[in-house]
Amino acid sequence: MNLLLHGATLIDGISSEPRSRMTLKIEGDRLVEIAPAARVSPNGTTVLDLSGLTVMPGLIDAHAHLGLVYDFRAEGDPGSVSAAQVAAWTFENCALCLDAGFTTVRDMCGVDGGLVRAIESGAVRGPRVFPSGPAIVQTGGHGNLSGPFCEANHFFALPGLVQMIAPCDGVDAVRKQARINFRRGATQLKVFISGGVVSTTDRLEDTQLSVEELRAAVEEAQARDSYVAGHAHNVRAIRNGLAAGLACFEHGTMLDEATAHAMAQAGAALDPTLTVCHLMAEEWRAWGLPESVVPRVRGCEEAMGRSLLLADQAGVLIGSGSDLLGRRQNRRGLELVLKASLLSPLRAVQCATINNARIMRQDHLLGSLQVGKVADVIAVRGDPLTDPDLFDDPSRVIVVIKGGNIEKNLLTENRKES
Fold it and tell me: Is the CB of residue 61 less than 8 Å from the CB of residue 30?
């Protein structure tokens, strides 16, 4: 399909100022022309009149968990949920993601290449997915949800769809799991290298997995021209990750100035996840969190915000991830709202577009509206630079185009011109 997107205000993801009354021409899955509206001829394309709307690159969530659809309650034990339910709820999250304007996600533990195939086949409506497969974790570390007195690990695993974690102890176990993940379609690896906010058997201050174990994961990723991202809340964990060659750190809650500069020098990125902290602190009962972790949750958003600013001042590449969990993940755009209050609305947009594409090593194709790039385009009602709250309201995302295909269209009419 050839498309002409006519008359919108354009935020292209890289420029410092929007441009008014622009037209974008799409042929197949690529942007082929961007120009003032009067200069572009329809030439037999389908025309969408986007006057009064703002056009932007498709948003990217660099820390998604589309398939982690169960909660933290005891009765929410993953083993009590059927494969059919997990699949149905995962597919629902895929559609919600797309409708919120997110045309791409990096799934940071959970789904594997099976979901990618389902979406690419057209059987499932969803974003472009870059899966990590199960996170590599140590026994007793964050994500190892088996009770501390269980004799063996037990975890939910549906190869071809979702698996949250893979406990690994020792270099050989890490190396083998990395190879399994890539075999099942992972595009990058995720490792848990510190304690977690909702963990009950570790602390945020703990480090997890040795530098040698992390290096094994990095070697396997580099052999495939890929990279490793690490769940890390404290600076010791980040320092271990830097020593091992990790390319990206998730959360970074306790970052200090010296470590931020070390990250910048190493070219490592930071992917803050303010949304999950914000929602868990407000809605911990609904999320099924144990009350014992609530004080830890409530301090995380503010601390993560301070870390984000330290990293930004040091010149670290800042990404954007929601870290949403559970069923009906419908607040993905809140991450841009929260980042806009710390940086600026334009910077928040750039974190969720071109910066995320750079972190994911996909900026040659995604993350900005430029001629030759993949045609991932959204049109929103309102001005996101003065009203970033619109990102938290999917009804204000009027048009979603992924790879040149119209995935959502709330316009009252469009027309074909020849």
Answer: no
pTM above 0.90, yes or no: yes
66 with 51, same domain: the answer is no
Enclosing H/E stretch for 162: strand 162-163
pLDDT tens profile 114-149? 999 999 999 999 999 999 999 999 998 887 776 677
* Residue 330: pLDDT band with limits 50, 70, 90: very high
101 DSSP assignment: T
Query: What is the rounded CA–CA span in Å between residue 367 and residue 31?
Result: 13
Provide the percentage of residues in the chain whose pLDDT is more than 90. Answer: 80
In the numeric block, the tokens 């430029």 are attached to 370
21 lies in which domain range? 2-58+367-416
Cβ atoms of residues 121 and 151 within 8 Å:
no
Distance from C-alpha of 57 to C-alpha of 300, rounded to nearest angstrom: 30
Nearest 5 degrees, angle CA 63-CA 65-CA 71? 130
Together in a domain, 92 and 103 = yes
Task: Give the CATH number for residue 23.
Answer: 2.30.40.10
Q: Is residue 197 over pLDDT 90?
A: no
| Structure-token pair, residue 29 | 């899955």
- Asked whether the beta carbons of 131 and 162 are under 8 A apart, the reply is no
